[in-house]
Amino acid sequence: MVGFRTLKRVAGEIRRDVRAAQERDPAARGVGPAEVFAIWPGVHAILAHRVAHALYEARVPVVPRVIAGFSRALTGIEIHPAACIGSGFFIDHGMGVVIGETAKIGDDVTLYQGVTLGGTGFATGKRHPTVEDNVTIGSGAKLLGPITIGHGSKIGANTVVIHDVPPNSTVVGNPGHPVRIDGRRPEGPDADWVHLPDPVADAIKGLASRIGALERALAERGGDPSEVGPEPELPQVRPARGPNPAGG
User: Fold this and answer.
1) Residue 170, class by beta-carbon neighbours within 10 Å (0-12 exposed, 13-18 middle, 19+ buried)?
2) 50 and 13 Cβ atoms separated by less than 8 Å
3) Residue ranges per structural domain of the chain
């Protein structure tokens, strides 16, 4: 059964989760721990999971799944009781977040609404992602399968990740591709989704330039450059500039 040490550990984890919400949610700045504990749905979801997981590890039947079910109904966040979640975990807003049975999440991880840590196929065993420490996962991102998201990585909004991600990477796209590795971003949550690179736009621009060069080469070989029309006007693809909207 659940012992005193387990209850003490769970209480410590919950205190750190509340502190994480105060540190990472701008809306919680200046809000006391008691108010965050009473109102924030992400805190409610992780609180319910801490209790359900402790009971699950103690092999208490039925009750852990009942707690998880009530938590899902109240918060819109579904966390399987068997999922292993480290301390300092924060879910911002949280509606639509799904964390599967064999998911493992490290310390100081931040998730936004609509994130799925899901499995692939119907095989038993490890089938959900492992998320290492200090990872930030943007709204609507889908991480599927027994992949590993390296320490300090950042997953862009609506990214679909189906392969391992190296540490300290930034991943965008569908399927997700690392576009920045070992960047200069300091550790900790970073909600600046505006300044992420756009590899799709860069690829289109490169293809358009290549087509223009091929058309010019073909016209020169044929001796009639007039056959090649003017190059199409392409929208300028520039990295986003200006202040970080996340306040960093």
Assistant:
1) buried
2) yes
3) 1-82, 96-193, 198-241
Task: Determine the Cα–Cα distance for residues 20 and 87; give it in Å rounded to an integer.
Answer: 9
Confidence of residue 233 (pLDDT cuts 50, 70, 90): low
CA angle 187/179/121 to nearest 5° reads 95
Assess contact for 83 and 72: CB atoms under 8 A.
Answer: no
In this prediction the pTM is 0.74
| CATH number listed for the domain at residues 96-193 | 2.160.10.10
User: What percent of the chain lies above the pLDDT cut of 70?
Assistant: 79
pLDDT tens, residue by residue, 91-131: 998 899 999 999 999 999 999 999 999 998 777 889 999 99
Q: Cβ–Cβ contacts within 10 Å for residue 83, how many? A: 21
Give yes or no for residue 245 having a pLDDT over 60: no
Burial 107-131 (b: 16+ CB within 10 A, else e): ebbbbbbbbbbbbeeeeeeebbbbb
Give the length of the chain: 248
Tokens 């990477």 correspond to what residue?
169
